[in-house]
């Protein structure tokens, strides 16, 4: 081969090398990242429903698992609470002398001193239950005598038994209330006959929640009747038991307090059950009070909403690259919330920019906020997001 041929071959080799080097340079350059096209999230906040409060008195409603009071009616200051006081008496006695769920507790033998307490309560025209010297009742039976017929004498007998004296009980009870943050509530006696035993609607809602949290007391307040040694059959003064889901709690009546009811009710909301705790104070009588509470409970039930927040496989956006690769942005979250009234519900989504991804790769976040509670769920690619082939890259060199 002559010199001219060798030069020609060398030139061809150099040209081919330049082409390969240029192609390698094109393939080595980074691809453009693609942003997700996020789908607008739905409006999930529900409309508020009006509650039907009575035209008299004051009150409040809350629910187990929900902080504080959900709605209130009338003045929210301290007022006499009559025999609703006995819920605190029972809780404080059980704080000192707890009973395991399903058990009766220790036996208590009634004495001449208990008969004297009974006579004093009768003289005061207070509610009472019979006392027989030498009769033996369990602690749970004593609580039934306290809470069902609302016997004032059994409130004093339990206080004396647990704390040694009524005065010692009252010190312990008011310290217990302070420790629980129930600073609107004060006990001047164990029964509520004294108008100086006071509380606020908001405090009573919290006290009702504490009653329900105690398995023994929660089971006592839902009993319609009980047969007690030496006393016989006693009936619960709460005539709403079993109506509109009512499961307790405690009645009260004095001239100063009017007719009162601290109540709890289980109500269906979607596939769940919400336990509402409420109170109405200062009714003219219990017939009117009970009718107003049944009406209120119907509107309270309507004010709870079961909201589906997210379902598995739900799409929240997509990716579409310049070279034609596509995938959806999905979540496997299964989320439902029971919300009160128009509690704000917001859904926000974020996703990073991609050039490629495997199927099921975590590339973003779904944030669901209900009221003040925020929960994050991963967003993943539904299918793989493929890189372009060589032909596309050669045809679309990147700067």
Your description of this structure?
The longest helix is centred in the first third of the chain and has 26 residues, at 3-28. With 399 residues, the protein is an alpha+beta fold. A hairpin with a 2-residue loop joins strand 18 and strand 19 (373-381). The strands form six sheets. It has a six-stranded antiparallel beta sheet with strand order 1-14-15-19-18-17, with no helix packed on it. The protein is elongated and about 135 Å long. The protein has helices at 3-28, 85-96, 112-123, 139-147, 152-163, 166-179, 201-213, 215-221, 286-303, 390-395; strands at 37-38, 58-63, 71-73, 79-80, 107-109, 136-138, 198-199, 225-228, 232-235, 246-254, 258-269, 272-283, 304-310, 314-320, 326-331, 335-340, 345-351, 362-370, 373-381.
Rg over CA atoms: 35 Å
Oligomer: single chain
Order of helices and strands: HEEEEHEHEHHHEHHEEEEEHEEEEEEEH
The description of the largest β-sheet is: 6 strands, antiparallel
Average pLDDT metric: 93
Number of helices, where a helix is a run of at least 4 consecutive DSSP H or I residues:
10
The end-to-end distance, rounded to whole angstroms, is 43 Å
Low-confidence stretches: 11-23
- What does the overall shape look like? elongated
**What is the share of helical residues?**
25-40%
According to DSSP, the number of beta strands is 19
Estimated share of beta-strand residues = 25-35%
Structural class: alpha+beta
């Amino acid at each position: 081969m002559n010199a001219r041929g060798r030069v020609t071959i060398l030139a061809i080799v150099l040209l081919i090398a330049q082409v390969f080097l240029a192609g390698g340079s094109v393939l080595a350059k980074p691809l453009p990242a693609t942003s997700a096209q996020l789908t607008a999230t739905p409006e999930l906040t529900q409309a508020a429903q009006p509650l039907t409060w009575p035209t008299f008195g004051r009150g409040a409603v809350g629910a187990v698992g929900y902080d504080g009071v959900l709605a209130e009616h009338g003045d929210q200051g301290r007022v006499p609470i009559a025999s609703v006081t006995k819920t605190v008496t029972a809780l404080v006695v059980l704080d000192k002398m707890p009973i395991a769920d399903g058990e009766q507790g220790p036996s208590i033998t009634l004495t001449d001193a208990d008969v004297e307490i009974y006579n004093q309560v009768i003289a005061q025209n207070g509610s009472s239950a019979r006392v027989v010297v030498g009769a033996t009742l369990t602690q749970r039976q004593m609580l039934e005598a306290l809470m069902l017929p609302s016997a004032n004498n059994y409130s004093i007998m339990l206080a004396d038994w647990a704390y040694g004296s009524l005065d010692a009980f009252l010190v312990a009870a008011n310290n217990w209330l302070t420790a629980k943050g129930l600073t609107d509530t004060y006990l001047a006696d164990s029964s509520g006959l004294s108008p100086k035993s006071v509380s606020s609607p908001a405090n009573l809602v919290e006290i009702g929640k504490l009653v329900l949290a105690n398995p023994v007391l929660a089971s006592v307040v839902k009993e319609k009747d009980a047969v007690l040694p030496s006393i016989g059959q006693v009936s619960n003064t709460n005539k709403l038991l079993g109506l509109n889901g009512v499961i307790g709690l405690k009645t009260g009546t004095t001239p100063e307090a009017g007719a009162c009811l601290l109540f709890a009710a289980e109500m269906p909301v979607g596939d769940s059950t919400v336990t509402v705790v409420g109170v109405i104070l200062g009714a003219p009588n219990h017939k009117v009070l009970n009718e107003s509470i049944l009406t209120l409970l119907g509107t309270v039930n309507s004010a709870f909403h079961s909201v589906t927040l997210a379902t598995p496989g739900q799409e929240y956006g997509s990716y579409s690259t310049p070279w034609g690769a596509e995938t959806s942005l999905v979540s496997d979250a299964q989320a439902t919330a029971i919300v009160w009234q128009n509690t704000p519900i917001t859904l926000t989504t974020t996703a990073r920019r991609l050039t490629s991804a495997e199927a099921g790769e975590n590339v973003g976040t779904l944030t669901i906020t209900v009221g003040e509670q925020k929960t994050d769920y991963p967003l993943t690619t539904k299918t793989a997001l493929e890189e372009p082939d060589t032909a596309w890259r050669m045809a679309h060199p990147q700067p």
